[in-house]
Structures are given as structure tokens and as C-alpha cells.
Design a protein that fits this description.
Helix content: 25-40%
Number of domains: 2
Structural class: alpha/beta
Strand content: 15-25%
CATH class of the largest domain: Alpha Beta
Radius of gyration: 23 Å
Largest sheet: 5 strands, parallel
Distance between the termini: 38 Å
Shape: elongated
Bound molecules: adenine
Order of helices and strands: EHEEEHEHEEHHEEHHHHH
């Protein structure tokens, strides 16, 4: 996967040179090209922004340097997606990260200052936001996208299974994890995890992932990819917990064919 990041602040991208992303670049699983679009400014003063037509506070990014920088990118052998980071975009999510991880190249255009010329939007296949808050610029958003997409590229994470078991990968939050010691300050590790009984452990993990999601993020419920045995787990959860019981009606329409007991 190749990333090209168009920014006025390439020095902000130092975090991409550490840890897992550093290893991924060293092993050529990913590459990150930083392009300072100030290098494509037309004026002798290297201006990349100008006053807004119609008046108002602040400066607006000019279209020409960004168009020129995108047009000057080396040809991609494969598929390319151009993404503009802006608080007005579609909210970034794990499923978008998964979709984008299939491309050969992602081009990320970072907006900055108070805004950008509306015609810059035409360069982008997608506009994406990190959430309903405003950052000083798109750089942090671009770094988050590079990180979330890169870890889905086969080989970037050490263990193949670890990306699949994450929170959000099947629409659920991740189950609770424990390590030694079995008791810490009176807090016990659930006995089932120490039992060595793998089928029971998997059932417990699935149930706790469902519990977490229902209690912490009920907004995720419609997107959960339920498995046949989940129906029984959900019934058990509803009996154990009143606030989950409230959701009983809502999961009726998600109800799978109960053909298998977990
Ligand atoms: N630029 C400024 N705020 C942003 C946000 N919330 N998401 C993406 N890019 C941004």
C-alpha cells in the first residue's frame, strides 16, 4: 500500500516513523510519500492561500498548488483513491479502513487554516472526517487514517489473527483481556479463562463482547454481524442484565436461525 500525503506541514508526520509503521515501511509493506504542496505554489512568494471572495475572516487555501501536486504524483500501477480530510466529510470508521486497505494507493489531502477553495473538493473521490469536532488541520486525521489502514495490510501486524479480533472488526467491541497474576488486589481473573476449555472460552468471549457493545455502544447494535449461536447468548445476557433486556425487542429483527447452541 502506498500513501501520498499532501500537506503544508510534512514535519508533523514524525509519528509515522515509529513502531509498527516504521517496520512496515522498512519491510516495504507500506510506503509514505510526503508532498509539501507549497512547492507547487505559483507566486514568487510561495503563497498557498488568499483572502476569501465576499470577505470574512481568515485565509482560504488556493486550488492551483493542490491540483498541481496531485497531477505531479507518479502514476499508480493499480487503484488509487483521493481522500480529502475535512470535518464536513463522512465519518471515518473501521469499515472504511477495511475498504480502503484494498487500494494500491491512497492520496490524502490535508486541509488547513480556516478553509479551502471549494473547487479542491472536485479532486477528491471521498471526503472524510474523524468525528464531530474541529482540528487545526487535516494532518492528524491523515495520520489516523494511515495507521488504521496500514494495520489491516497483511503482514503489518505480527500475528495474522490479531486484526480480526479487534474491537469493531465484526461490529462488536472487543471482549475483556487478562494476563497474570490470576488475582490482583482482590480482583480475580474469570475462572473460565484459566480452565483451558477453548470452546467455553470462545463462548465467554463472544458473550462479553456482546455485553460490552450493548452496554457501552448501543448505537452499534444495528451493525453487529450476529452468528447463529448469539441468540442464546443474548437471551442469557437479557436475563442477567436489565439494561440489556431493554434491547430485546430491537434484536428481534436481527434474530438468526437458532440452529446451533454455542
Ligand atoms: N480537519 C479539521 N477537522 C477535521 C476533522 N474533524 N476530521 C478530519 N479533518 C479535519
Amino acid at each position: 500500500m502506498h500513501f501520498a500525503i499532501l500537506t503544508l506541514f510534512p514535519e508533523m508526520f514524525a509519528p509515522l516513523q515509529g513502531s509498527i509503521l516504521k517496520r512496515a515501511q522498512n519491510t516495504d509493506l507500506i510506503s509514505i510519500r510526503l508532498v509539501n504542496f507549497r512547492d507547487y505554489a505559483l507566486s514568487k512568494h510561495n503563497n498557498v492561500d488568499d483572502l476569501p471572495y465576499g470577505g470574512g475572516a481568515g485565509m482560504v487555501l488556493k486550488p492551483e498548488p493542490i491540483y498541481a501536486a496531485v497531477r505531479d504524483l507518479p502514476e499508480t500501477v493499480g487503484s488509487r483513491k483521493v481522500i480529502l480530510t475535512t470535518p464536513q466529510g463522512r465519518v471515518f470508521s473501521q469499515s472504511l479502513a477495511e475498504e480502503w486497505s484494498k487500494y494500491t494507493e491512497l492520496v490524502l489531502i490535508c486541509g488547513h487554516y480556516e478553509g479551502f477553495d471549494e473547487r479542491i473538493r472536485d479532486l477528491a473521490d471521498e471526503e472524510v472526517s474523524l468525528g464531530d469536532f474541529v482540528l487545526t488541520g487535516g494532518e492528524l486525521a491523515a495520520m489516523v487514517i494511515v495507521d488504521a489502514v496500514s494495520r489491516l495490510i497483511p503482514g503489518v501486524l505480527g500475528e495474522a489473527a490479531s486484526a480480526q479480533e479487534d474491537s469493531h472488526s465484526d461490529g462488536l467491541l472487543e471482549y475483556p483481556q487478562y494476563t497474570r497474576p490470576p488475582e490482583f488486589e482482590g480482583k480475580q481473573v474469570p475462572e473460565i479463562l484459566i480452565s483451558g476449555h477453548h470452546a467455553k472460552i470462545n463462548r465467554w468471549r463472544r458473550k462479553e463482547a456482546l455485553r460490552r457493545t450493548f452496554l457501552r455502544r448501543p448505537d452499534l447494535i444495528p451493525g453487529i454481524k450476529l452468528e447463529p449461536g448469539d441468540y442464546f447468548l443474548l437471551e442469557e445476557l437479557a436475563e442477567e442484565n436489565l439494561s440489556i433486556a431493554v434491547w430485546r425487542e430491537k434484536w428481534q429483527y436481527l434474530r438468526p436461525i437458532p440452529n446451533k447452541r454455542r
